[in-house]
Every structure is written in structure tokens, then in C-alpha cells.
Amino acid sequence: MKIGIVCYPTFGGSGIVATELGHALAKNGHEVHFITYSQPVRLDIMDKNIYYHEVNVHVYPLFDYQPYELALSSQMVETVISRKLDILHVHYAIPHAYAAFMARQILKDKGINISVVTTLHGTDITLVGKQPSYLPAVKFSIEHSCAVTAVSQSLKEDTIANFNTEKEIQVIPNFIDISLYESKDRSSRQLAEEDEFVISHISNFRPLKRTHDVMQIFAGIRKEVKAKLILMGDGPDRDQTLKFAKDLGIEQDVKYLGKTNEVERVLCMSDLFLLPSSSESFGLAALEAMAAKVPVISTNTGGIPEVNLDAITGYLSNVGDVDEMIANSLKILTNPKLKEELSANAFARAKEFDIQNIVPQYEELYKRVVGKTKT
User: Fold this and answer.
1) Strands 272-275, 254-256: parallel, antiparallel or unpaired by DSSP?
2) Has residue 75 got a pLDDT over 90?
3) Does residue 41 have a pLDDT over 80?
4) Of 57, 92, 275, 307, which is least packed with CB atoms within 10 Å of its CB?
5) For the purposes of burial, counting CB atoms within 10 Å of the CB of 198, is it exposed (0-12), middle (13-18) or buried (19 or more)?
6) What is the sign, positive or negative, of the torsion defined by CA atoms of 301, 306, 309, 313?
7) Cβ(335)–Cβ(317) under 8 Å?
8) Per-residue pLDDT for 94 more than 80?
């Protein structure tokens, strides 16, 4: 099958999931074409069956905001025609689902029927998509997709409630490649001294990630045990987060790695992972940590409880309950037997989300949707 994938190419979860899905589909023999404005951060265009098509947005002084949706729709049309694609899979509703609808209409005028699958990832529904200026277009795009998936049951329910839609939504969860973690060296301690714990956090440093809470939790941990905090990712709250670390007097124990490609390696050196977000539709970073056999301290919001199981793979707390998260962190770090038990449970849970279990669900969906389009 020839599959077009449209996603954001950034460090965010939706782009990472889309990229890893594309790689897995290519390994299964499908021809995969990525259509976006820059090369996705984890895309290896040297891999067999992987192709990249850049969306070029020409700057014109008349526009305060350049019409990316038009350029994206046009590139979709061109790629579908030139590469004879069977299906377009768009990740993140805004603006990809809307642009895909326009591309589909243009192609219909040319006698070409293309199937469109839309995958909802989170803030495209729970935050941005609810804005009055976007809501009608997002709802229309969802309801006119050939199929819609959501990465968690929580997100599915939010979509139905926020958009008052009866569109069928299939839950296909996010995933990880367990094999990337099984081969990592867990004994190396370049990140800390032998007597120090390694605490890690990955995010795009936006307000909903509550990175100030990350700093406060670590400060509480640091008062009782020796530890280093490793930060990965980037975003608008990065500078103020690092400044807050300085204000708390923990700056010397915080290492910021930025947009690193060594995520799996760092996680495999970690003892604990922090995810105190105010909103997560799935919690991919938590799943990545669990695949590395790392217990997770997280909030109980959105889809996180579908991944991190309270008192089994880590601990859940209410949003903003920093004191409880500190207490739970220390409970794990100071009890080797508990830490070992939670680590084993975390890995077992992560294996349920292995890419080998999830990709066939997308392949089956593609076949079903393409079959309906051709009939």
C-alpha cells in the first residue's frame, strides 16, 4: 500500500508517533510518503520505502499569516497524483484534517478518490480545537474524514463531548518500540555519580507540562537524597524553568540536554520519571520511561491513568499536588524492593503498547477504509 503521512515535524508527541508509525509501515513493505514543511526530527529518509515531500509556503507581503493550509493541500494533491497514493493519514486535526478534506475535494474533480484517516492526539481537541474560531472547521473535518482514531479512551470521550459529534472514533493507542530499550546499557552513569539517583523529564516545555512543578518536586527529592535531574526537549517555558531551578538553588544538579536523540539511552539510566502535566491525552513520555523500566510519578489527568497504573507502575496524584508527588518519589527511591517491583511492572505494562501490537491495527484500518472508498 502507498501511504501519505501528514504530521508536525517537531519534537512533540504527535510528530514522533507519526514518524515511528511510518518507519514501521515501511519495514512491513508499505511505501510511505511524509508530507510536511520540514523533515520530521526522527525521520530517516535513507530507510527503504521512506519518502519526504516538503511543503513550500511562499512568502507574500499581502499576507500577515502565510496560507500554509493551501500549500499543504496542494502538496497532498500533487503527491497523491504523482505517487499514486492509496490513502492519506493525517495526524493532529489542525490544520491537517481540514487541508486533507480540501485535497480530497480537488482530487475528486480529477476523478481520483483518496481515503483520509485522521488521528487525534490531544490539544488539537482539548485546547486549540475548542476555540470558537476553529471549532466549526475542526468538527467538519473530523466528520468528513473516512475514519477517525484517538490515542486514548479519554481523548475519544473528550472529542465526542467537545464537538457534539456522532462520528465513530476508534481508539488506537500510542506505542513504543520495546527493542530500542532492551539493547541499552543500563549500568553506565555518565549523567550522575554512583551514589546519585537520576530523575528525568521530557516535554515540549509548554505551560500545561507544569515544568515549575518538575523543579519543585526535584527540589523536594534533593533535600532527602542525592540526585540529578535530566531535562529533555524544548519549548517556550524552557528559559523560565531553568531560571526557576536557579532560584530554588538546585541549578548545579539540573542538566538540560535539549532536543536530544538519546532519549532511550537517558531513560535507561534513569531511576524515576516525572510527568506532572495539567493535561495529557495519552502520556507518551511516561510510556517511553516505562519501556526503560523506570517508575513514573504523574498526574491523574486525561489518558495518563490508561498508561501509568497507580501503585503498580508508579504513582498518580492530583494536578498541582507537589507534596504528594515528592512523598511518592521518595517512597520509591528509598525502598529498593518497591523500586524493583514497580520497574518490572512498568516494563510489563509498556510491552502491551509495543509497536508490533499496534501497527497491525492501523494496517487493518487502512485496508477497511480503502476498500470502502473503492466500492
Assistant:
1) unpaired
2) yes
3) no
4) 57
5) buried
6) negative
7) no
8) yes
Domain ranges of the chain: 2-175+355-374, 179-351
Q: How far apart are alpha carbons 312 and 168 in whole angstroms? A: 32
Length of the chain: 375
Domain pair 2-175+355-374 / 179-351, same fold? yes
Fold designation for 179-351: Rossmann fold (3.40.50)
From CA 325, how far away is CA 3, in angstroms rounded?
43
Q: What is the pLDDT of residues 352-361, one digit of tens each?
A: 999 999 999 9
pLDDT band at 128 (very low <50, low <70, confident <90, very high): low
Classify domain 2-175+355-374 at the CATH topology level: Rossmann fold (3.40.50)
pLDDT at residue 275, as a whole number: 98
The three cell numbers locating residue 299:
498526574
Task: Please tell me the pTM assigned to this model.
Answer: 0.90
State the Cα–Cα distance between residues 321 and 371, nearest whole angstrom: 49
Rounded CA-CA distance 266/253 in Å is 16
Give 47-74 pLDDT, tens digit per residue.
Answer: 899 999 999 987 777 777 678 899 999 9
Q: What is the DSSP letter of 354?
A: B
What DSSP line would sit under 280-340, residue for residue?
A: -SS-HHHHHHHHTT--EEEE--TTGGGTS-BTTTEEEE-TT-HHHHHHHHHHHHT-HHHHH
Helix axes 211-224, 238-247, angle to 10 degrees: 30
